[in-house]
Amino acid sequence: MTQAYSDPAREGDPYALPNVEVFYMSTKEIESYGKDSVWFHADDGNCYDDEGWYWWSCFPGCLPDGDASGPFDTEADALADAQNA
């Protein structure tokens, strides 16, 4: 997982922590989490999220602060979305 800043201007701040994680999920990984996971949508039956790049708000060493956004075609696309959110 890539850790990044939602506001790139904070990268030089010695007291700021990265607050975004960008990561890739394959179809196999998504399905391996099963029907009790956030990747499964019960309202759609057997519908899982699609393979691709995702991001979520998350400080290092902490659980994510909400659901993942995505999928995106590239890591750069996911990071750009996170920094524009």
List the helices and strands and how they pair.
Blueprint: E1 2-4, E2 20-25, H1 27-32, E3 40-41, E4 47-48, E5 52-57, E6 69-72, H2 75-84
Antiparallel strand pairs: 1-2, 2-5, 3-4, 5-6
What does this structure look like?
The chain is an alpha+beta fold and 85 residues long. It has one domain (19-84). The protein is built from 2 helices and 6 strands. It has helices spanning 27-32, 75-84, and strands at 2-4, 20-25, 40-41, 47-48, 52-57, 69-72. The strands form 2 sheets. It has a 4-stranded antiparallel β-sheet with strand order 1-2-5-6. Strands 3-4 form a two-stranded antiparallel sheet. The mean pLDDT is 91.
Keyword list:
85 residues; elongated; four-stranded antiparallel sheet; alpha+beta; two-stranded antiparallel ribbon
Short description:
19% of the residues lie in helices and 27% in strands. With 85 residues, the chain is of the alpha+beta class.
Quote the beta fraction. Answer: 25-35%
Query: What is the averaged pLDDT score?
Result: 91
Tally of helical runs: 2
The percent range for helix content is 10-25%
Shape: elongated
Using only CA atoms, what is the Rg? 14 Å
As an assembly, this protein is: single chain
Task: Work out the number of β strands.
Answer: 6
Distance between termini?
A: 19 Å
